[in-house]
Amino acid sequence: MSPDKPDLPAAEELTLARLALTEGDLPHAAAHIAGALAQAPTLPEAHELLARLATVNGGGLDLFPLRQNVFVGTVVARAHLLAAAGQPAEGLDLLVAATGYAPHTPWAEVPWVTAPDLAERIEPDRTAQILMQVCAATTDPVPRSGQAALTPYLTLARNAVTVHQGHPLLFGAASALARRLGEVSLAVRWASRGLRVGPSKIGEVWLGYAYRSAGRIQDALAALERAVAHDPDDLAVYADIAGTLADHNRLDEALDWIDRALARDPTFDCAVHTAHRLRFQRDGDVAHLIALADFVREHPEDSHEHTDLAESCAGQPWLGQITPAAGPAVDALRTVHSGGQLGATVGLESPVPPSALRTLSQAAPGLRVQIAEGPGPDPYEPRRAIGQHLWRHDGLPAVGNPSPLAADHLRQFVHPAWPHPPAAYDAAVALATLDLADLLGLLTHPPTVPPTALGRVLDEQDPSLWVRSVQVWACLGLLHHRTDEPWPTSTRRTVLLDLVWGVEDWTTEAALFALVTAAWVDPAVRPEVARVVAERLTDAVEVARTRSVPIAVSLGHLALATPDLTPPVRALARTLAEGRPPVPDPPRRLSRLWRRLTAIFRRS
């Protein structure tokens, strides 16, 4: 369905339609009536003109043909003509299609849909099918702002169950619609009546959903368990029971139901998705989500779209969003941004990532920053010998500016959050056209915040978040650079490893996230990425024994998002992520662990 149509006001469309009718130009009249209905579907004048077209040969249907990418106004006009021609069920099919296209528009708010006699003119099976189509075309539940547009369908349901009181399928479909529209008591009543007329598995499911929406959880579980008794092989109901139990903090019972489903079919998609989500919810081990991502990749033909992976990653550091920056420069930056006052000179007593220092300098031009030299390794020296340097020792960029075209292109995709790492990888393919010099330039010369709603939010909340977002997406773009090169000898791998071991900076985190993302989507690189993450984490711990490491907490979260990390390294990562770096005097157990890891990586 397509919105393509000249953007004329409805009144002007009708004026042109009347003129075309006077001249006998029915096709142009039909086009303008469709244009008016698309903007004002309940406008009486549009329906009056449409009624005039209904008097021509064929009831005017030929004037509103259904083609590929058909205009929504054409669909709605044809629906009304079908009803006028004695085919209301076919007309309702088209109105429901329009509802699916634009759910908040009152396409069905017309007299013939809510007329009591319509229910008598349509077979109850057909009405039930139409109501289920409405449910499939809308969200569950429907937001309050969208309920009014769907009320005519609920009126149709009321009229239908009044006329056809012995039809269980109709009661169940009506219950499902009522529940979506917030009529929970009515949904329970209709589902219960349907079961009294004819017990069935689907009837118990509808009743269970209605009870669940009403907050009657024990009744909901009882109904869903009766549904299982009707059909023990419908594993989707097992997943529904598990989800309901989990929503009420009964994880052990939920997982018991999932295990029962998986015992019947270990590959059943709903059960697999739910199982991994609930296991992650129980213990927080990212291995469950990685296994789920692997399952999704290996089973692209799943029966329907699932959101378990995205729900589990939402709000989780690096799994679904960037972690906030930390350190004294960021604290000063936020003070400036919130309207606070800093002196002409700001003294910082701990290391400052070059990206943070550059962001602060741009936010407060003229501010003099004095950084005290402290103990420990020089924060402006790479942690290992590298080929690609992003920063000079004085904290200034060592690479040139990106091209304006590259900056504009990247700004279209930058966001501080993503559904999950594989989704971020897929989205970053749009950056595959950028060359290496531009991608590196974007890391040290981020473009300005775009004048969009997202840009305003980022700018108002925390300017460091925009810079970090740019760096993350530039590194994700590096994953798609010259993908024809084998990974072990590829430019993308070499450059990302250089960034990981370069100057201690926000770009270190961004590059490490890109490698972690590569491990999510390609099991073949997991052993190497796990080793790199463990080495980088151990190095940060070693440095943290003598001075602070502003990116340490974030590195801990990155490690916790890494596939196939060993338990000792995961324990170390959890310590850092919780903000408990082992300095200056680490506990004996953690100290022994650190020495073991350091010895291992020095030998490798």
From TrEMBL:
Coiled coil regions, renumbered to chain: none
The keyword Zinc-finger appears for this protein? no
Gene3D superfamilies under this entry? Tetratricopeptide repeat domain
- Give residue ranges of the TPR repeats: 203-234
Keywords in alphabetical order: TPR repeat
What Pfam families has UniProt attached to this entry? TPR_19 (PF14559)
What's this protein's name? Tetratricopeptide repeat protein
